[in-house]
Amino acid sequence: MHKNAVRDKKQNMYIDKQELEPEYAEIFKLVDKEVEVELKKMGLMDKKWNFQMGTCHVYWLIKKEILKKKYNINRQWPSELNPNICFD
After folding, report:
1. pTM value?
2. What share of the chain is helix, strand, coil (3-state, %, to 5)?
């Protein structure tokens, strides 16, 4: 298990503990908006945040790239922390 993983009892899976750290909250909100724009450009998301099947993987990839390039944040995604769960 990754050193930054913590168990989210509500979702019954592991998450990156950075998701719970207040100093990252604003950054994650900004990046979410950037990812939303990219997904809409790609036709993978509509105005109501409805995703096509499998879009979560594209979402995580785009978000991971932005976090690394702009903020030097390395974040682990649900699929990386929970290899026993099939995400779509």
Report:
1. 0.78
2. 50, 10, 40
Positive/negative CA dihedral, 22, 26, 27, 30 = positive
20 DSSP 8-state letter? G
Does residue 31 contact residue 18 with C-beta atoms inside 8 Å? no
21 with 4: CB under 8 angstroms? Answer: no
Task: Identify the helix (H) or strand (E) that includes residue 7.
Answer: strand 5-8
Torsion, Cα 52 57 63 68, to 10 degrees, reads -160
Residue type, 16: D
**Candidate from 11-15, 35-39, 53-57 with smallest mean pLDDT:** 53-57
